[in-house]
Amino acid sequence: MFDFSVEGIVARVPAILIGLALHEYAHGKAASLLGDPTPAREGRLTINPLKHLDPIGTLMLLIAPIGWAKPVNVNPYLMRGSIKTSMMLVAAAGPAMNVLLALASAVLFYGLVGGPELELILQYMLIINLSLAVFNLLPIPPLDGSKVLAGLLPDRYGQFLGPLEQYGSLILLLAIMTGVAEWVIGPAMKLLLYGFVAPVGRAIGTLIF
Question: Which residue intervals define the domain Peptidase M50 in the entry (predicted)?
Answer without folding.
Answer: 120-163
